[in-house]
Amino acid sequence: MPIADCQMLSARPLLLGHRGARPVRGFGVDSSPQTVPPENTLAAFDYALASGCDGFELDIRYTRDRRHVLCHDPEHDGKPVADHDYSGLERRHGYNLPCLEEVLHRFGSNSFLDIELKVPGNERAVVAAIHAAPPRYGFVVSSFLPEVLLTLHEIHAPLPLGYICKHPEAAQRWTELPIKTFIPHHTLVSQRLIDEVHARGLQLFTWTVNRKRDLLRFAEWGVDGLISDDPKMLAETFPAAMAAGAV
User: Cβ neighbours of residue 87 under 8 Å, at least 6 residues apart?
Assistant: First the structure.
């Protein structure tokens, strides 16, 4: 299936686990490092899906030998990811550091994927990996970095792109970029913004929403996707959630 044809249809917001899942504290939610697998691992993604989510967000960085590894921070166990080969990076707690290709092959047929690129420099290889194993349940390639999105658009214009931002100054750029999904931090979201995004024919996802009342409020406003650290709480907030297939 061509990657331009992958779309998600849903009667309610898309439910996505942030980095799969992360321990949540201070929100009255039963979530701890003892019960939640480490973020950005295959186990965390399995946990999000088993909890009832439609998919998950994941973070991509590049190793010295140009592998697409899942890691949020620039360093992994004290080692700069960009300065080491993939074989020299090992996961703590018995979990291996997964690659994008593993995620595409294992979850591309049953999960919506929000593939966030943390750094520039290997965009063409990312597009090639997606072409080789296109997610059939829907996906977006997202980034905080406008230059990454512009490069991806030059490589393959139909690629569904998403612009992430946290601060009001950065948020102003969303109308300038070749995106299909705007992904502002939840503190920036308003009914007016959602309406404006929809008026332009785009979707709006928001992150990281860890309070039930906020989830319900954003859903009532018409947000298209909700990203939360706690996939169980996210799915339990929408008990009648219906997973829709790709077209």
Answer: none
